[in-house]
Amino acid sequence: MSPARSSSPGPSLAQYPGSRASYASPSRQSPQAQIPQPKQQPTPNTSKLQRTQMPVIPAVFPELEELSYVGDWCRVILEEKLTVGVDRLNKYSLSQLEKLNSDKRALKTFVKGLTSVQEFTQLRDEVLHSNMGIAKTTLGHESELRELHQAVEEQRAELRAAQQSLAEKQARQQRIVAVREVLCCGRHSSRPNRLRDMATPRLLALLALCSAALTCVYVADVVRTKQLESKCDMTWSWPVYSAVTWRGAPQHASYGLVRVDMKLERQALGGVPVLFVPGHMGSFKQARSLSRHLWDADPQLFDVFALDFREEPTGLSGDLVAAQAAFLNDAVRSILREYKRQRKSSSSSSAQLAVPDSVVVVAHSMGGVVARAAELLPNYKRRSIQHVVALGVPYEAPSFPFDAEMNALYERMQASKAANEVVYVSVAGGHKDTLVQTSLTGVDTVANPSRAVSVLASAIPKVHTPVDHFCLLWCHELLKVVAESLYKAVDLQTRRLGSDPSVRLAVAKEVLFGGQDGGDVADSEIAENVSLHRRYVQDGYYPGEYAGYAMILPQFMTNLLRTRFFTMIVIMYALALQIFYAQVAQWQSRFNLQSSSSPQDLSQDNFPSFTSMLHPTAHAPAFLRNSATVVSDALHGRSFLGLSKTSTAATAVLTLVAAAVAGYFGYSKLVSDTEGFVALGTAVADVIILYAYALGLLYAVTRLFSLLQRFFISPIVSVLNNVTDRLSLRRWMIIAIILGVVQLIGQIKGSSMESSKVLALAILASFAVFFVYLLALGGSLDGTSDQLRMKRSLFAVFCLSVFPWAGKVAFFAGIVRWPHSELSNDLLVEGGSYIIILTLFTYIIGLSLDCMIPLPPTAFFGASSGLDAASVYGKSSGNSGTSVKITAENCPKCIYEDGGPGAILEEYSDRTTSRIVAGKTGEVVYIGPTFRVVSCDCVYRFKNSRDFCDFCVRSCRLCGGGNGNFQEAAKYKDFLEESKVDLAMHALVPMVFQICAAVQATYGLYRAHMSFYFTPGCVLALIIYHIVLRHPIEARRIKNKQRKKTTKKKKSSNKAKSKSTAASTTTTSTTTSSTTTTTTTTSETTSRNKKKKKRKSATSSTSSASSPLIEEVSTSS
């Protein structure tokens, strides 16, 4: 602090008559307290010495105003003396004045020696001495009056003390009421918010550390599992693959039917048809090991076929599964038809053999789902599939659960179980199968339990080793058991598969659960083994198996991560939706009029960041926070001050209803059902663990992405933006370029112009445009801090909703490679809907890159007078990168120097504040505002609003007005009544996100595909929010900003063009006339130098003649 603003107390003047009741320090002296200075009379000689003002003689007491004639008398005398001094100065020559200017000491002595200066100082001292004498005599005459003032002040002090005690009691009661209101509206006050802000980084950092450690340990266990030595022996074979070319073979653009023989190709069909169905990205060549074991059992008994699906990613798309299932039915029909055709044209000896009416299906991975889905299609021939051997097939749920068509297919499979004549034998790989978890291979949901059996490979007596997902296709021990079960299920006389499904199932159980010596097993032992293996498959291990692998994680954690890993992504998606809802809701509430006695914490951000909202208390729904608060208060024995009477009654009613329901259904039954109780507790524990894991992992990924954005993504986006700016490319041009490039690449690989291929290329191009826009959204650094936070949250929502599009891209990429001959209506509608959805995604990203989400209607309260919060927010956010909070401390409208008895003041100065040095001692006096009120407690101190200070009854829209601003509050209530519809529509937008998040976190927790439907709904709500619900004033301001930007760009481009043209013209002119320009330039430079010399000489003479005396002769000297 400067010496002029020292905090030392000044002399108290309250005891003198006529003084103010409250002392104002010299630094806060108002201009009215100064004596008006007399104007100087102009003289013929205009010099600074004549224009200097006389020192101001302050009137210390009102009684001394009668002596004001002394100032006039002094002024007249001094004017006469000054004229004499000036005449004396005029007698000096210019050379003498220059000598005085060079020697400062001589100049000071000369000035002090002037008679006018000496007489002026003597006269000033006499006047001050006389003033002090008069003041002493006046104080002596007023001693009696001072005693009376002291008595009156004592009585006033007693009265003030009584009033202050009464005001404190009233303020205490009002504070209790205010606390109750705050607890009822929102129990998190400013202090809990500060505690939450302090605990947020600690809790999230701890969860992120635990999640990262858990992920590392899980990955280490997976690597160790893959490194475990397999005890399976390799199956060696001599396969012969031949494409089926007979008449009536199934025709498809990309699929094919292949026959697999051993050593030699066979032309005739004389055995039991066995069809191998490959899985996800599987090949028909994977049937060679199965064909070898069947050939070992009987070289002529089985005819092995395999489907060629071109190694498509079947596990990603339900459309691929449906297409493959349709081709499977056509292949089965063709195989059975070929048997009949060969029987008619064969000899009499072979005519004795029976013609098969069904096909044995051996499926791997998703091939089993294809075979099961084939039974649900219209082209399925009844009883054409009666025996299915599934090797690592996920019947319970898809391994990649994000595709909507895949989940619809599973729902159909589980709704209508397989027919009773179909036998299902499912074999799970066990611990080494990390792609398809063992618990997903159960067949009880898709088939009749009496016609199906599930076994664990590591628990089969003849195998007794875990088998990985691809080892299921070549494991010698396992395939030998499978081939033996199929061999024993065939009637060797008729060379047909057994017609009785129960017999075939019994044979399969006997072979699978039989001992290594091949002896017979009792039926009771087989039944016991079936139940045991069903339990093994559900748990994933037989007892004691997991301990032998020496894994780091416990068994329940390994099962949880293997089976519910994608559920964690679902929780992340629900968290992103809920966080975006909380951010938009807080954004809409930040512009409400702050008229309550305890306004919300203004230190919070308008649009909070994504990481700050990851804390559970920040994104938790309101009813969960309230219920948690009630429970915590009940546990700690607190009173329910924050709850109103209605909420207390509602809590009591809900408690009574819950007790009645528990009594009706029977509490004893609930406790006695230990299995259901344990299952419920396990499910709740799983959800809590997955939630904590997802929260920590999401925080860690967010931090990691911030680093990637800073050092990798943002530089790439900035380079691309610079390139597009230089080329003057607009967004529609970029989109057209991407569409054209994708179509060109698609036509290069294949010159066919089928309509299905054109549609598929359009969908892939739309996805490419969306991906480019998503990259721009994640790497954008333009805009205000609120807009950047909004972009980050929207980027998180889109990134977590991209997973369902993997299957769509894979399906249409396959159509580009092998186009359909005809474009069906279903494919056209499906592809068109995808293009529309991706266009909506791209459009909302473009809107988010340009502007912030619309301001709520409350931000435009007072827009007619120009005091709306939207205008202040636009100015503060547009000028700087951060949004400035308008409070009483920095509000440009609320500047009050005086407040109530409990007012808190802060040092403040503005342009009107001036600093004046007066007197011989150099006393500093400030004129204008030097302090301002930042807070006051008149609302708690006084009961009547008439006693409030000006600060408490002010009317300001920028900082929320005063605590006692009842008139403004009434206007605000009328404004809310008029804009009810707009407020409801604005509130519906974040509510859409919250509803989607609630449904996804409850009903859709294990339905990951629902994000494919929720994201377009949320995007549509945001588009309506941007276009329809934006206030006209805000839209007009945005248009004006865009016009200014475009005009600036045009001006800059025009300047660049003019500079380039000017440079070209100058170069051409210089080359043609170089000699003439040199002569003219030399002449011009010489003339300019002469003019400069003349100007310098003139200025130096004038300055040396006048300026030194004017600078030195001043009042300060």
Automatic annotation (TrEMBL):
It is a multi-pass membrane protein. Residues 1-10 have a biased composition (Polar residues). One of its GO terms (cellular component) is ESCRT I complex. Keywords: Coiled coil, Endoplasmic reticulum, Endosome, Hydrolase, Membrane, Protein transport, Transmembrane, Transmembrane helix, Transport. Belongs to the VPS37 family. One of its GO terms (molecular function) is phosphatidylinositol deacylase activity. Its main location: endoplasmic reticulum. This is GPI inositol-deacylase. It comes from Phytophthora fragariaefolia. Residues 1038-1058, 1088-1097 have a biased composition (Basic residues). It is found in: Endoplasmic reticulum membrane; Endosome. Residues 1-51, 1038-1117 are annotated as: Disordered. Residues 91-177 form the VPS37 C-terminal domain. InterPro entries: AB_hydrolase_fold, Mod_r, PGAP1-ab_dom-like, PGAP1/BST1. Residues 142-172 form a coiled coil. The keyword Membrane applies. The keyword Endoplasmic reticulum applies. Residues 29-44, 1059-1086, 1098-1107 have a biased composition (Low complexity).
